[in-house]
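Subgroup meeting minutes
Present: P.N., E.W., G.H.
Scribe: E.W.

1. P.N. recapped why we're keeping a running log of single-chain structure predictions: easier to compare across weeks, and new members can see raw inputs and outputs side by side.
2. G.H. added today's entry (345 aa).
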Amino acid sequence: MKNLILFLGFFLTASCVDKQKDISFLQKEITSINDWYQTVSDTLYIDTFYDVETSNDILLEQVNSVIEISKEKFWVSDFLGKVIELDANGRFTKTILKTGKGPQEVLKPIGLTKSSDNTIYVFDGGQQIFIELDTLGNELKRVKNASIPSTVMSISPVVLDENRLLWNKIFHDKFALIEWDSLGNFKEGWIENIIPLGKQPIMLNNLVYDYDYKMNTLLYAFKPLPIIFMRNEVNETNGVYLGQEINLRELEEITSEKKEDGNNGVKNLIKAVFKVGSNTVVAYNNNILVLPDNKTNAVVEFVLANDSNEKPIFHYGYKTQHHFFLIDAYYRKIYNIPLEMFDKI
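Output recorded in log:
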């Protein structure tokens, strides 16, 4: 068993629902994936949900969010200016919002989410508003929100309750994950930046997360780092290093500030992290890792294969109630994996 306390400069608020308001520097216990019984490899064949080359219904160019309205109905946002509805087979059903459609116009949708009462929120970075709709696509209201970013292609919003919204923000001066009120006023910072605003590489602050409101637990990962973090209901945070051996030198190099005129690009290793039953699922390096809660069981690393028996690439991942969608931004494809695939392991 290999345990290590790492001081990586990560900050986390102690605030979440009923938690303290102050922010503290935390020591995080980082364990290796080697702590599990073993890691086994398997092939997971995935279905193509949408392919721009074969679709005669609708042209999707820059998909950045997918939500499940029902088992037979999905909404997809395209950064270039539309929100459309697809059926369970990925076929076009109708347009919900689009650019140039009068009062129902949307300019740059950057995120979709559904609240507990089935209200749909469409976040529009072009107008810095969120639009509330019912599940039939009828618009309920528009709310101006100056904190909605206008310079990014995608956020992952969560509605905590009527006046509490959560989403990630790369260019905030202090926090990477923030709770806002409905008007865009800052309420609480949940996760602090690794790289300060104005320094490089700023994209190191880009994160993915999965919040379970009922359990009051948070899974998150900074995309360029090979670590996932888990915060439980009593605010204890620990992490899992996804490499075979914890490499302090590598982590120090990745998280160090770079010169403004240098090569400041980062590679996004982690595309999504979420919980399915007693398993943690991580979209990592174009594979899927499934980590069981019980470390006496094996970690499963799925190598993906598409309909053509080729290894697909993907850049984003979105979990809905029953599915995990992978987005190939280059070839404009959407792949679909039923969540039950991960629960049966």
